[in-house]
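Q: Okay, next protein. This is GAF domain-containing protein from Streptomyces spongiae. I've checked the sequence twice, so it should be correct. Can you predict the 3D structure?
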Amino acid sequence: MRAASPSGEAELTDPWVALEPGADPIERVRVLRHAHEAFTEAGTVERPVRSVVADSWRRSARAGVGPDGTASVELTDGDLGSYRAEHPLARVMPLVRELMGTFAADGEHLLAVCDAQGRMLWVEGHPATLRRADRMNFVPGARWAESAVGTNAPGTAVAVDRPVQVFAAEHFIRRVQPWTCAAAPVHDPRTGRVLGAVDITGGDGLAHPHSLGFVQAVARAAESQLALLTPLETAAADTLDLTALGRDEAHLVVDGRRIRLSRRHSEIVVLLARHPEGLTGDELLCALYEDESVTPVTLRAELARLRRLLGPALLGSRPYRLMVPVESDVAVVERRLETGAVTGAATAYSGPLLPGSQAPAVVRLRQRLADGLRTALIARRDPDLLADWAHAPWGEDDLDVWRALAAVRPTAAARARLRELESELAAPPGWARQPTRPTPH
């Protein structure tokens, strides 16, 4: 059932579906164009813009995306070919083509697959539709991240990590507004990390709820195929796989099982992974607790619970240590930085290490990793890498990165944000910055 809004507009019962069956797409487009103009001119969101779209418009505006912008092509020719060949989603492209190819060709649609940064890896489908898409750079190698081109299904799907449908004037950039698309993220079946998204792009007919369910089913099939193609031995008793970046509760793959650790257990496993030789009880106590009144009994109780969770064969004592090697996303970023692979390190960095943790040793490690990566990004002076960091939640107030970005890509938005940060730095204590642009609501 559809509920009526105070203005008499019918509201969607599922906020992730763009257009319910029976709705007039022409009328909806008219209303959305008016709402889009109101937002770009005054920063206000009007009905009946869905909350997922309104939130995306706000993120797009904060990222400095302009409504008349266009996507940039980052990877071409050999670089694109080698990057695609090494990407995990290359292994499931035959399945994606089998499930989506005929539907795309017969319906004059496109199937597309992007990576976790919103870069298009494959765009295939009806020849005439491909030619139209080429005119807006919806092509392999182009960057369709939300922070680069605003609201769009594949870019927004990887940004919010869930299936999403974007209809017509819900797109932030005007030249994309004749299109409708639906996309769903694809995850690594072992770690849960977002690898990219599968997308179907075409005309208004794709605003039907079935297209959203379709791409979600394809994404789940791709994840199942990846699980079958990845031998369990690679993540079984020989190695533990730890994911701790960008999340307060780490994930640990043990014997093919993915375990979500508590916050304290996450801190313990991260620290033990850093010290394969083991840590004494006193060393762990100092590493985990700022409060010196915490007793060894408290720590032993936490370790006993962790041992029951992992199994006695995996957690040793005297000293406390993990009994098998650990592969972690933290180590991946560090290795890539050490070898100068800055782009690879930035790609693997999905956020600060256990961002909510106050454990002293975790705080030090979190800061050291972030500082090492941001220093490398500033030295590299790659505008896209700098923009990714600056527009991420952890980089919005990073003055040094914004200075570097404004130097290599001096857009009006970058210069304005830099002025804001520099004025905040120069302001006296207790000074509250007033907004310099309309505040969306």
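A: Here is a summary of the prediction. The CA atoms of residues 176 and 252 lie 40 Å apart. The longest helix spans residues 209-229.
Q: Noted. On to the next one.
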